């Protein structure tokens, strides 16, 4: 592994940081308070080429790599974790499986629109009774002539309602467990496809999380992604990469919280000196900075492996586990450094703390990461 | 972030006239008065933190027994049940530290160190246990449909007000080193 970012990666970081600080940060608190998704932010990311970072130019991407993708999600999340996850779900969860398992027609029809940012993507796996236990899903897809007919409900859908293209998992064989699952590409506006409850959440409040409802929703067989019965494999391998995105989001949140806490500790005076001059504060900042650095290296390592075609399942699980825990710890400590001010909405650290918690839950809870890592280190 | 049902405001005094009869104690005695009832205050906030942690623990325990994944309640996984064991142990430790400080205070014994320890430990426990409670609930815990996200938001203030954890560390270490 090369520890030096390429010139292209460094330029991308600068570009995304400028964009994030100038155009995403100013409205982050307001969008959080109002639980408001802003499509214009996504459209601007499309203009900058961020919506198709890792995909070849022939499919509308910019032909870059997964480390660049991680850097983009990190820099966005450093000011607004909702914007970070919008991009992460779009690239890792919706575009990745189509790029990896889609046929040429599907790539031209769907990936192209996702990569250019003409369309926003989402991924629909979880159900009320099927969270970590994916194989117990109840949504069905019944073959009918040249179509499949989908019935069932999906929950926790990031970009739900606002996305245009959904990768949806359903059982084509209800008697089989994980081998009965297949993946479909479903477009917004398809008859029988509607949106249910939008969740009211602790954090990432300007990223909509919505229920999807399929009632006799007819999907052409051309929209079957991969083969029948291949859905479980598609879902799991998609999540392996998705974890890099969430790890990057967690690194961004933690870095944002650390930056805010460091600046404040140097400015805030008590007992006639900046609070940073107390070891009780400066040692805390040292621990925070060390954890953020380790999280970032774990994340870039997993992303680098993916770009180079090296196995990354264990690495991405470790990155997500450690970075998620770091985001939680560092954001709680950042509020502590700010004291009472940190508990108010006048400063961003309380938002970082509320946003951080989800990184320990979605795209596989920390418990699932430990299952994955535990299996790999004991096999 | 939390305690939304409790008003926190700034007060402004602009030539506000107060009768002499309302001077509490003597002039110049304010600092002593401000710091004199801190022990009770810390025991009180410790008890608040304890309540938050107990509620979060109760909610998680109930949910872990009900929620089934992979054909069994999630509480049947050691990954969850050991987490609950850690949470319950920290809650019990908090309770004993608080009751010990309260009992010393009741008996007229100086409990500055013990009150600070109780507040520091109980508030850390409230933060840790409420974050773990959201974890046990998974995605559901992140929504306003269950109380655990509120416990998490409420818990953080207990490490900040009536003396931050850093101030408790000052008090405890001074007592140790004197």
Automatic annotation (TrEMBL), chain A:
Keyword GTP-binding: no
Annotated Acyl-CoA dehydrogenase/oxidase C-terminal domain residues: 229-376
Domain Acyl-CoA dehydrogenase/oxidase N-terminal: 6-118
Protein keywords: FAD, Flavoprotein, Oxidoreductase
Cofactor(s) needed: FAD
Signal peptide coordinates: none
Record-linked Pfam families: Acyl-CoA_dh_1 (PF00441), Acyl-CoA_dh_M (PF02770), Acyl-CoA_dh_N (PF02771)
Residue span, Acyl-CoA oxidase/dehydrogenase middle domain: 122-217
SUPFAM superfamilies, per the entry: Acyl-CoA dehydrogenase C-terminal domain-like, Acyl-CoA dehydrogenase NM domain-like
InterPro entries: Acyl-CoA_DH_CS (IPR006089), Acyl-CoA_Oxase/DH_mid-dom (IPR006091), Acyl-CoA_Oxase/DH_mid-dom_sf (IPR046373), AcylCo_DH-like_C (IPR036250), AcylCo_DH/oxidase_C (IPR009075), AcylCoA_DH/ox_N (IPR013786), AcylCoA_DH/ox_N_sf (IPR037069), AcylCoA_DH/oxidase_NM_dom_sf (IPR009100)
PROSITE patterns per record: ACYL_COA_DH_1 (PS00072), ACYL_COA_DH_2 (PS00073)
Family: Belongs to the acyl-CoA dehydrogenase family.
Protein name: Acyl-CoA dehydrogenase
């Amino acid at each position: 592994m090369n520890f030096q970012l390429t010139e292209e990666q460094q330029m991308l970081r600068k570009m995304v940081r400028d964009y994030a600080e100038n155009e995403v940060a100013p409205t982050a608190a307001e969008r959080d308070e109002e639980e408001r998704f802003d499509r214009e932010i996504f459209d601007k990311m499309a203009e900058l080429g961020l919506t198709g970072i890792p995909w070849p130019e022939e499919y509308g991407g910019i032909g870059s790599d997964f480390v660049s993708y991680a850097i983009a999600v990190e820099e966005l999340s450093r000011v607004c974790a909702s914007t970070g996850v919008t991009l992460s779900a779009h690239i890792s969860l919706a575009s990745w499986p189509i790029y990896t398992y889609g046929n040429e027609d599907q790539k031209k029809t769907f990936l192209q629109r996702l990569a250019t940012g003409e369309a926003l993507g989402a991924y629909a796996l979880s159900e009320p009774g099927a969270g970590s236990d994916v194989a117990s899903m109840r949504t069905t897809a019944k073959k009918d002539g040249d179509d499949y007919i989908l019935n069932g409900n999906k929950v926790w859908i990031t970009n739900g309602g606002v996305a245009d293209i959904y990768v949806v998992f359903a059982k084509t064989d209800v008697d089989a467990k994980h081998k009965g699952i297949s993946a479909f590409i479903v477009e917004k506006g398809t008859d029988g496809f509607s949106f249910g409850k939008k969740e009211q959440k602790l954090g990432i409040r300007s990223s909509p999380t919505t229920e999807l409802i399929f009632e006799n929703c007819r999907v052409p067989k051309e929209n079957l992604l991969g083969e029948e019965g291949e859905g479980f494999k598609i879902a799991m391998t998609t999540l392996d990469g998705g974890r890099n995105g969430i790890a990057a989001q967690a690194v961004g949140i933690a870095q944002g919280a650390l930056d805010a806490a460091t600046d404040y500790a140097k400015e805030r005076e008590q007992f006639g000196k900046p609070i940073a001059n107390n070891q009780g504060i400066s040692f805390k900042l040292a621990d925070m900075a060390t954890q953020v650095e380790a999280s970032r290296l774990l994340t870039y390592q997993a992303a680098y492996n993916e770009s180079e075609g090296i196995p990354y399942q264990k690495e991405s699980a470790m990155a997500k586990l450690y970075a998620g825990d770091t985001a939680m710890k560092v954001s709680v400590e950042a509020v502590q450094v700010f004291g009472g001010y940190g508990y108010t909405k006048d400063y961003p650290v309380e938002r970082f703390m509320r946003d951080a918690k989800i990184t320990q839950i979605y795209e596989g809870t920390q418990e699932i990461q430990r299952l994955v890592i535990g299996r790999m280190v004991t096999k | 972030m939390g305690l939304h049902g409790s008003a926190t405001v700034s007060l402004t005094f602009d030539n506000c006239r107060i009768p002499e009869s309302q001077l509490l104690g003597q002039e110049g005695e304010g600092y002593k008065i401000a710091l004199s009832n801190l022990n009770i205050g810390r025991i009180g906030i410790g008890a608040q933190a304890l309540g938050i942690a107990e509620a979060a623990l109760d909610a998680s325990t109930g949910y872990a027994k009900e929620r089934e994944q992979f054909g069994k309640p999630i509480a049947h996984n050691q990954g969850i049940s050991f987490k609950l064991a850690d949470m319950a142990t920290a809650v019990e430790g908090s309770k004993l530290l608080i009751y010990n400080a309260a009992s010393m205070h009741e008996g007229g014994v100086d409990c500055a160190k013990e009150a600070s320890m109780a507040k520091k430990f109980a508030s850390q426990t409230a933060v840790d246990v409420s974050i773990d409670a959201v974890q046990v609930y998974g995605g559901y815990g992140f929504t306003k449909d269950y109380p655990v996200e509120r416990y998490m938001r409420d818990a953080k203030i207990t490490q900040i007000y009536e003396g931050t954890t850093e101030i408790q560390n000052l008090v405890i270490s001074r007592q140790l080193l004197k």
